[in-house]
Design brief:
Number of helices: 6
Shape: elongated
Strand content: 25-35%
Helix content: 10-25%
CATH superfamily of the largest domain: von Willebrand factor, type A domain
Length: 347
């Protein structure tokens, strides 16, 4: 089983020619989240083979969705559920399909360039988040109504840049790792109850296969739990806040969590909960790490800017109602991480 690693500082397959291409609209997946977690791996089959019973599965929520969008990406975009790998930063949609992507039945298709791969998808769906890893692709799709879905191999095809079709394996429910970085500088003292309550609630979400790392930072960094070792519910249930005091060594905490969570085939996401400007300076490797590992930050208190905008994927601000925003912050990222599919190239 492959692993997805997520740091919270807080399918493809292919096939023969696209003959008889056709696509079925997605419908609601009635399976529970817990059952969906057990689906495991699917071996890819030929793409674009008509199957009227085949439907992309709409991904069920395992919590009450947030009431408003809180994630800002620095490009005037606001999200309810943030993309781990946003368009134009990790992938692009092509204006025209390459000539080797044939479509004899005139089915509407969209083609995306993701690293060194080209992904052809039924126009009934769009790629919301995607990135290439060393052996394939991470991706999250949604339908025309904005519902997030898990695509099957009949909904898309994968190619190399020179037009060769690629055989791959779909992993819909891989294990995931989440690392949470909590600010324990002196000014965070007033937010202790909100932070503890939100973390405990997050630990009770039915994302039972997630593995959590946990870090605290003030004038120095304390590693509570390194990532990819222990289930989130165990890590977070045992967590007790250290006494607030000292500075804000945020950049040091980021680099430590990046290095601990860096793996060849994992999704790694960083989520930060902090209330102020870092008191330390970034190291020379931080920018490179942040380009590989999506980073999300929630600023609590009286703030109007993202102090680490050079490194963050998106950020949220909680000027009031901190507990509610913290809860939405954790839940939204957990949903986004859970929903990504992993595509592993076979050869």
């Amino acid at each position: 089983m492959r692993h997805i690693g997520v740091i919270i500082i807080a399918a493809i397959a292919v096939s023969h020619d696209a003959m008889s291409q056709s696509f079925s609209p997605p419908t609601r997946d009635t399976q529970s989240f817990e059952k969906g977690e057990k689906e495991g791996k699917q071996r890819s089959k030929a793409f674009f083979v008509f199957d009227p019973k085949s439907k992309a599965k709409t991904i069920d929520f395992f919590f009450v969705p947030p009431a408003k969008k809180i994630f800002y990406d620095g490009r005037n975009n606001v999200f309810l559920f943030p993309p781990l790998y946003p368009e134009d930063r990790y992938f692009t949609r092509l204006d025209h399909s390459p000539v080797f992507i044939k479509n004899p039945k005139s089915e509407l298709l969209s083609v995306y360039k993701i690293g060194r791969y080209l992904l052809s998808v039924s126009a009934a769906y769009e790629i919301f988040s995607a990135a290439a890893h060393e052996r394939g692709i991470f991706m999250l799709a949604r339908d025309r109504n904005g519902n997030f879905v898990h695509l099957g191999p009949q909904h898309f095809a994968l190619y190399s840049e020179n037009g060769n079709k690629i055989d791959a394996q779909i992993i819909t429910n891989p294990k995931k790792g989440i690392s949470i970085l909590i600010d324990r500088s002196g000014s965070m003292d007033g937010f202790d109850d909100d932070v503890v309550s939100a973390i405990k609630e997050f630990g009770k979400l039915p994302v039972v296969r997630n593995l959590c790392g946990l870090y605290e930072f003030s004038s120095s960094v304390r590693v509570v739990q390194r990532p990819m070792k222990v289930q989130c519910r165990i890590v977070l249930d045992k967590y007790r806040l250290a006494t607030a005091g000292g500075g804000t060594a945020l950049f040091e905490a980021m680099e430590k969590s990046y290095r601990d969570g860096m793996t060849r085939e994992n999704i790694s996401v960083v989520l930060i909960v902090s209330d102020g400007r870092p008191s330390d300076s970034p190291g020379p490797s931080l920018k490179r790490f942040s380009e590989r590992i999506p980073t999300f930050v929630l600023w609590v208190g009286n703030h109007v800017q993202d102090y680490i905008s050079e490194y963050s994927t998106s950020h949220a601000i909680a000027n009031s109602g901190v507990h509610g925003v913290l809860k939405d912050f954790f839940n939204s990222i957990a949903f986004s991480v859970h929903s990504h599919q992993v595509l592993i190239i076979k050869n």
